[in-house]
Model the fold of this input.
Amino acid sequence: MSFLQRITDERRADAKHRRGDGALETAKAAALAAPAVQDFTGALVAPGLALIAEIKRASPSKGPIAPDADEVAIARAYETGGAAAVSVLTEPNHFRGTLQDLRNVRSAVSVPVLRKDFVCDDLHVYEARAAGADAVLLIVAALTQSELVSLIDATAVCGMAADVEVHDAGDVRRALDAGARIVAINARNLATLDVDLATIETVRPLIPAGIVTVAESGIETRDDVRRMRDAGVDAVHVGETLMRAADPAAAIRAMLG
Done:
């Protein structure tokens, strides 16, 4: 079983269990009553290359990154450095994140906030909005086509954006068929966890004009950012490099030049 399948199965089981306790109805009511959504899409297409800065305490490929990180202090540094949006990894078992991290970040910054997780149930979408998320990540390879369509619809009900992650041509076709308006190309193969920025350069031409594009994974230096800009993306999504930086704000400024 691949890592992606294993972790998605865990998230499905968690949602199924909590649905039985009435969590879906509670989360949907809270989502629809939440304050107005910020414009995640607009933040990514502002002049210049946008940077989504991620809060990530650990990962399966790297192990602990910053397990005791203060998510509020880091998020504020990201905003100060010029991040267009903040991504918060909320998966608890492998990335050591929580929805409370997202709530704390939302209260600390004025830029849009993305829930990054292995979202596979409407419950996850409604919980994200209730916690203050303006967008959610949806991974094509982790979902059936009907699930992908349903989850994009759920984000629309909440007024949020769906940041739809792809890795190859087949994923791109499925994302576009489902109505994705933001496509994030992941340089990391979620089956092997290997990273290759050439994946983004190969996949980017398959995405039509008018679709916002994001480059994910393996972006560590100013040269990497230039390479992604030259590939034609609208934004880059950076996590580990910023989480390890002594001065995250300065690190963002250096990457964006």
User: Anything to note?
Assistant: The chain is about 45% helix and 15% strand. The first helix runs from residue 3 to 19. The CA atoms of residues 76 and 93 lie 25 Å apart. The first strand starts at residue 50 and ends at 55.
